[in-house]
Structure formats: C-alpha cells, structure tokens
Amino acid sequence: MANSPTHHTKRLSDLINEFQLKQHITSPTRITTTSKTLIDIIMTKASDTKIIDSGVIHLGLSDHSLVYICRKVGIPRAEPKIVETRQFKYFNSSAFQYDLKMAFQNHYNLYNYADPNHAWE
Asked: Model-level pTM?
C-alpha cells in the first residue's frame, strides 16, 4: 500500500482540480540507484495555450534533474506618445500677454479671501 494517496497528496490533487491547473512535469526528477521520484512540479492554468515545451533534463551531476518550461511571451507595445503643439503662425503677443495677466490676476484674487467658500462666489 505504499502507493496509496496521503492526505497531502489528496489535498494537492483537489487544489489542482479546483483551480483548473495542469502539471507539466510527468517524469521523475530525482533518480537514485533504488528509486525514481517526481518531486518537482511546474503548473499553469489548464487553459494556457502559450506553453511550447516542458520536461526534465538528466544532467548526471547529482541525483536531482533539471526541470524546464518554455512559454511564448508577447512583448507589449509601447503606448503612443502624444505631442501637443501650437500654431504660432498667427500668434498675437499682446493678446497672449493680456491672457497671462488676467489668469494670474484672477488667481491672485482668490488668495484675498479668508474664507475659501467666498473666493468662488
């Protein structure tokens, strides 16, 4: 009965089903002379269509193997930069200076009130 699921195994299986996940590593990731065990997992949403490849590479450097997954990645486009310009062909310097003077004068007058509610009346 060594292969019967433990409480933790059942809980992991329930979570995989509940969140609709897919386990991509299916071959053993730890190999010794007496056993082969899958101890590494890579999970994605089951609906993820961008997975290209996944697997295990046995390097022979230790009893633990390398796991990998390859996924398509889109490069986001940069937001367009909007530049606002003004047409100065018919620029009237006097009118512009008058507009600035009036804007600052109206702004300055707001500070002459002790009560801010009166400033906007």
From this structure: 0.55
